[in-house]
Amino acid sequence: MVTRCLVVCEGSSDFAIIEGVMKHVASIHGKEIAATLLEPQYDATTGKHDKFGYTQIRAWCKKAAYLKQTKGRDWIGQQLALSKSDFLLIHMDADIAQNLELNNSFFSGNFKSRRSWCNDSLDSWLGLAKGCDCHYVLPTWQIESWLLATFDEVSSPGVFPTAIADYESIKNVEQKMLLLGYKEDARKPGRIYKERRLYSENPNHLPRLLNKFSIATSRCDELNNFESLISGLVTAAGNS
Known about the structure:
Blueprint: E1 2-8, H1 12-28, E2 32-39, E3 42-43, E4 48-49, H2 54-71, H3 75-83, E5 87-91, E6 101-102, E7 105-106, H4 114-126, E8 134-137, H5 145-148, H6 173-179, H7 196-201, H8 206-211, H9 213-219, H10 221-239
Parallel strand pairs: 1-2, 1-5, 5-8
Antiparallel strand pairs: 3-4, 6-7
Helix pairs in contact: 1-10, 9-10
């Protein structure tokens, strides 16, 4: 039995990692999972995916809430039913926590509480539209932190001169990735180049993460949480 899911995330490169990790975790349990990128949508004219950051995720969630509250329409449930999917996964990097207003306040907590702030923000945006078939993946800073966690003071002493106690506490993620040799975005100096196929196929992106998966999960709480979430979903689907 194949578990199916819809994914709303910040970008297609994020989806490449999310999809790859989900398939890897499912395979560990002898299961299959198929992920469909719902947002950002693919623009056939440009051959690229639409821009879709946290502001678009917020608008998408609030649309679902509006339809539920004003028209009684289960927009998320309808999309799951039409695609014959079992659950919805929403991804958002928690580096933008300080931009999110919640209960008339802005984020002022410690670094590790960024994730819970984003979690509560998503809950607030979705309101009654969130059901038990909606789940989140919220890296404490950036999803690329998971890639950084495959390097250390032994393999890359020039970038990590000492052991890192908590990879998710690293804020200058992209700067370190550039020092490790990741491609720079020519249009955005100081930023890494992000593209779905590159993330899926380049040996230093998803393939590296999967080859060192147990190391990365031990160093990143949210990746470990994500593994547990997918493990539970695919095994539960197989037993239903």
